[in-house]
Amino acid sequence: MNWTGGHAGTQVRVLTTDDPNAPTGSGFRHWAVFSIPTSATGLAQGVGNPGSTLHAVATQLNNGSGQRSFSGCGLVIPRTAACSRGAL
């Protein structure tokens, strides 16, 4: 996943992948990463796999399975999932 630009004054980036249609009653969080530096222009393939390494200051939050990694049927975000990128 790659991106360009950003809002002036952005200090860090945040990425979440949520599936609001998962049969859990409240959806399912596949992955969440925060403190992605503004100098980063993307995330490498496989970076969400268990044991993989993110940028030195980025942090993965627990997903819907309670793990700090991507959780899902594969590295393809389901069509019903909402992928959002934010800035703080």
Poorly predicted segments: 75-82
- Outline: globular
The largest beta-sheet arranges its strands as 3-2-1-4
Largest sheet: 4 strands, antiparallel
Structural class of the helices, strands and pairings? Answer: mainly beta
End-to-end Cα distance, whole Å, is 19 Å
Fraction of helical residues: under 10%
Q: Report strand %.
A: 25-35%
Structure summary, number of beta strands: 4
Q: Treating each run of at least 4 consecutive H or I residues as one helix, how many helices?
A: 0
- Write the element-wise H/E pattern from the N-terminal end onward: EEEE
**pLDDT averaged over residues:** 78
Gyration radius, in Å: 13 Å
Descriptive labels:
88 residues, mainly beta, four-stranded antiparallel sheet
Verbal overview:
The chain is an all-beta fold and 88 residues long. 17% of the residues are buried. A four-stranded antiparallel β-sheet has the order 3-2-1-4, with no helix packed on it. About 9% of the residues have low confidence. 0% of the residues lie in helices and 30% in strands. Strand 1 and strand 2 form a beta hairpin.
Quick recap:
With 88 residues, the chain is an all-beta fold.
What is the element layout, followed by pairings?
Layout: E1 12-19, E2 28-37, E3 59-60, E4 82-87
Antiparallel strand pairs: 1-2, 1-4, 2-3
